[in-house]
Amino acid sequence: MTISDRVRIKDVRVLSDNWTPLKTTTFEYRRADGAWQTQHRETYERDNAAAVLPYNLARRTVILVRQFRLPAFIRGYDDLLIEAAAGVLDNASPEERIRAEAEEETGYRLHHVHKVFEAFMSPGAVTEKLHFFVAEYEPEMRVSDGGGLEHEGEDIEVLELSIDEALAMIADGRIIDAKAIMLLQYVALHVFR
């Protein structure tokens, strides 16, 4: 039996569509014991996205970005968030989009990006799946100051940190962005051995 055999969608309503659609869904779910249970869930219908962590093996450095995030602020985080560069795919392939996003946010034109995994970041409420990449960079690959796109409300600071400092920032709570944590742990295990 597949999951499709265990789910019957009964009703879907759009609650809001200002930034991304927020929907409420009523469905029946066949439990492990065979009984059907009616459930209600709200989901944000987010497009898929991609994130990248540029690294320089010889210098043992990584590129991260720092920016304001309203949801983190609302939850009481009174600082800018340090993150991996990322963006919504906007009908592009993950590889195309992450190269463009890296250049917009960090100012680095990355030549070769390597996909390392995919993950749902908040599968209980958000439909978005993230494609995770790493990419080698060299100082001469910087073609601009980065900073993001002003018309999208971006005001991004570019950070070049040693891998050791970035990992210490996870440990002491200065880096709390899941994308950054996952990619930093990946490069610590597989690149900076």
UniProtKB/TrEMBL annotation:
Motif range (Nudix box): 87-108
GO molecular function: hydrolase activity, acting on acid anhydrides, in phosphorus-containing anhydrides; metal ion binding
Any Gene Ontology CC annotation: cytosol
Keyword terms of this UniProt record: Hydrolase, Magnesium, Metal-binding
Cofactor: Mg(2+)
Catalytically driven reaction(s): GDP-alpha-D-mannose + H2O = alpha-D-mannose 1-phosphate + GMP + 2 H(+)
Protein name per Swiss-Prot or TrEMBL: GDP-mannose pyrophosphatase
Taxonomic source organism: Bradyrhizobium huanghuaihaiense
Taxonomic lineage of the native organism: Bacteria, Pseudomonadati, Pseudomonadota, Alphaproteobacteria, Hyphomicrobiales
